[in-house]
Design a protein that fits this description.
By secondary structure, this protein is an alpha/beta fold. The chain has 2 domains: about 15-155, Carbamate kinase, CATH 3.40.1160; about 160-205 and about 210-239, Carbamate kinase (3-Layer(aba) Sandwich), CATH 3.40.1160. Helices cover about 40% and strands about 20% of the residues. The protein is built from 9 helices and 11 strands. The chain has a 9-stranded mixed β-sheet with strand order 4-3-5-2-1-6-10-11-9, with helices on both faces. The radius of gyration is 17 Å and the shape is globular. The two termini are about 15 Å apart. About 40% of the residues are buried.
Amino acid sequence: MSSDSSPGRIILKLSGEFLAGDAKIGIDPKRLSRICGEIAEVKNIQIGIVIGGGNIFRGLSASQTIGFDRVNADYMGMLATMINAIALHTEFSSQNVKSKIYSALSMPKIAVPFHRDSALADLEQNQILIFAGGTGNPFFSTDTCAALRAAEIQADCLYKGTQVDGVYDKDPKKFTDATKFDKLTFSDAIAHQLRVMDLTALTMCQDNQIPIQVFNISKRGNFKKALADKTFGTTIQRR
């Protein structure tokens, strides 16, 4: 993928916090409508979305702060991703855009079980796929789910939409001297423990040669910019 060419098939990782907007919890209808509209405007690219659930419930956080059993807390987090997936699907439908929810958990009334061949066939029909339920297993983040789905559908790139404009050596919201990286290797991201994605997700993308592009998705138009230019934000790749 060059700076002046677009990928053919991608995974877009969205956090639940992004959907919440300034409220920090729940779903902001304006933000939901805006991002679905921007995704729908993209042409000639097959798109799968992996959605988090942190705007509703975070399993790891609940196990640490409330004392919930980690396994049950993670399943609650997976259910939170289903709520967000339904919201995305409903908004796409209101904009006359075809989408389908694939779930790692069995929920036949609202989603179909994830099956790679079916997902690939739907992508070929230009449906936007929404992957929910994480990996279906506790102890794995939705970042890891994004890496897994990217590998399974042979995505050209994994795009991670965040609240900042790339990867920094430290939190730019807390430190004014934080330095932004334009490019990183997977080895550097892992060695310096840059918290762009968890170790499992980074390693999976590294092993399957799937570049990761991190960009600020909170600003209108940035998704298209990231698709058109691999230098927009921060790119993480093998070398």
